[in-house]
Amino acid sequence: MAATSDILIIGGGIAGLSAAAALAKHAKVTLLEAEDQVGFHSSGRSATMLHYFLGDRLVRELTLASRAFIEEPPEGFTEAPLGHPMPVLIHAREDELDALDALDAEISRFAALDRMDARGVRELCPLLKDDAVRGLADRAAIRLDPHALLQGNARALRHAGGTLVTSARIASIQRSDGAWHATTDNGETYAAAVVVNAAGAWADQVAILAGMKPLGLRPLKRTIITFDAPPGTRLDRLPFAKTVGEELYFAPESGRLFASPMDEVPSEPLDAQPDDYEVALAAWRMEERTSVKVERVHSKWAGLRTFTPDRHPAAGFASDADGFFWLAGQGGFGLQTSPAMAAIAESLIAGTSWPVAGIVPAELSPGRFR
User: The whole model's pTM is what?
Assistant: First the structure.
């Protein structure tokens, strides 16, 4: 016999968890996660910040709308802060100044930025080479704690009476008698009038199982390495530093430095693992841009960042089946926009007021890909 609820959410990354926590205030919610823990594939592997240098205008609007929640979460949501202050520094060489000026113009309405000359850049980040001649710094950026965000939403879901089921990979899903019926690999069946497809890199596969047309999602792998900083480096004073182009970012991490070559390697939905080439590329780019010598890679990992064709999230009911809600394609900005995206899902499903003044629902509708 099927376990019934009002809303069934597939996927326990930050998208599914935050939406589940928001919707559980209005309805009986069950969340199914394929792995034995939430946030296993992407959300839990993200070295993420809350800042406005990522994405475009729409992503920045979502980030801005999420900030108040991150800074002051609801009472009882978390036992630890969801993040801590860490400045973000975007640095540029002489031949990259036009791109830096363009970025400055785009960000100015979202954040107060410090414009820096070469001296200011190296005062904030002494590890950079002398060819970093200008920079932009957002000193109000926040280094997010993915674990605190994930566990806070899981706690909120349970507190509101919702159910979280792990090790529940979907084997089949179909609609009959006005409800969606999802059966897991272990033979358990769950039914609900509304199903939310928040399966991340697997969201298109879930749609195909349900007899729906996929959106054309693209999982892209990103690699991160950790290594020792030069002796005497004050890690507590370093920013999250990023090239103005999509080349390199690095920051302090648990007594060491981490870096990513900002790779976007097309991948099938899977448990992503780092490849030797991207690991070497991260070390090489770090040595090209900074005075650091990567003598030894202490750890390495990879995660999938899944994008829609236009790199904007999809949030809305499908036009080709009743009660099928897409919540997918948050790319590399899922954690920093999760409060706003959860409120958007709450608005579209539960009928609460629209939460983001700078965005209209049509911009996120999955129907734009039809």
Answer: 0.96
